[in-house]
Each structure stands twice: as C-alpha cells, then as structure tokens.
C-alpha cells in the first residue's frame, strides 16, 4: 500500500497511466464503432414497383442484410412500425428493389384525398360549403353522421322545413385551403367544406337542391348520434326520408332547366 501511494504521488507515473487509460478507452470505442458500422442489419426493400397513393402490405416487402455504412439518406429500417399500413406519397413511385425512404412513405390521413379511401362501394363524394356556425362550432368530425334538412318556401309563400336525407356520413372536414381541419397540426383551421359519402341518386338530389335559387331554399346539416350506436365497422343506412320535399326539389329543378 505504501509503495502504491509512492507511485501515485509521482506525477509522471500518474500522467503515463492516464494516457494509457485514454488510449484504451479510445481503442475500445473505435472498435465498437467499427463493429457497429460493419455489422449487417436487416433492411426492408420493395419486392415490386409500388405506385403513388398505394397502401403498403407485407407481400410488397422483402428484406436484405447490409452494413450501416451502406445506408445513404433517411432509409426506414423497421417495417412493422415505419412502413406496413402506410401509403406511398402522392408524387412518389417506389421502384422494385428500392429501399424505403422517409420522404416516400406517409400516413393515410396525410393523403390529400384520403377520404376517398373510405367511400363504400356504389357511393360517391359530395362536398358542401360550411362555416364555424353551420358546423355547430366545428363539432362535426369525420366518421360522424348528420341528417340533411331542407328549408324552403312553397309557391304560396308558406315556409316549410323537413328532413330530406338521414344518416349521411362525414368523410372529411376541410378548411379554405383544402387542409384537413382535424389533422394533428399547430395551425388553427376553420371548417370551410364537409365531404360526405352518398349514393349517386342522393348526390344528384342534393345537387339539384343546391342549384335551386328561388323560394329561399336552404340546406341544413344536423348532427346525430348514429355513429355512437353502431358496432365497429358497421355503417348506418342512408335514406331519403321525405317524398314531399324530394318531389318539390325535382319539380323546381326541372323548371330551372
């Protein structure tokens, strides 16, 4: 112990030991970095050419082992958390054999026309101008249902209002720039358009109702709790509920033509 104290009290000896320790640390750190860089990792790549706006599934993905030094750019390395279920970007085609890059892969809700993916077979998209007031303080969300009411005056000046269509599903809510209002963003976005999914005949009926400029017509959206009463994956049936209003719209639209 006395001899050790004598050695440690020698500044030259302490300096020498310190240098040796630093060299050893640098040596082992260098070797660790080299091993990390040269050790192969499993990287996903495209088995086929994947077109823009395409959902990426497991059958489109293969795997290859390469070293990290061979990775150039922002390559995605975890298929389960970064690629599967995502979509190719709107202006990006992923060639067969290519690795997946962050700029080429986006979430479904980031697609500008993502609402079209949720259209039922036989349905079409119908867009309707709205405001903060007509959406009940921006409380209409994608996946919710609304009933469509129609207010009008008949030829005798009698004011009328009634439910025209029930169970219209909201597919998207957009602001004036076409951006999703409820997208995870720091921007304060106000609703300007609601996009619905409706059958072709109801789409045609609603368009006719919009185009009638006489008799003080007005389409009113009323939120319902239909979405809360449905099982997961179930859709509420959409129906025209008033033949009287439908006939009125048909007659005025025919006159307008």
Shape: elongated
> How would you characterize the largest beta sheet?
6 strands, antiparallel
Q: What is the β-strand count?
A: 10
Residues in helices, as a percent range: 25-40%
Taking all residues together, what is the mean pLDDT?
A: 82
Q: Detail the poorly predicted runs.
A: none
Strand share of the residues?
25-35%
Rounded radius of gyration (Å): 32 Å
Sequence-ordered SSE layout with sheet pairings:
Blueprint: H1 2-8, H2 11-38, E1 40-46, E2 61-67, H3 79-82, E3 87-88, E4 105-106, E5 123-129, E6 145-153, E7 159-174, E8 193-199, H4 200-211, E9 218-223, E10 239-240, H5 243-256
Antiparallel strand pairs: 1-2, 3-4, 5-8, 6-7, 6-9, 7-8, 7-10
Helix pairs in contact: 4-5
The gist of it:
The chain has helices at about 1-10, 10-40, 80, 200-210, 245-255; strands at about 40-45, 60-65, 85-90, 105, 125-130, 145-155, 160-175, 195-200, 220-225, 240. The chain is α+β, with helices and mostly antiparallel strands and about 260 residues long. Helix 4 (about 200-210) crosses helix 5.
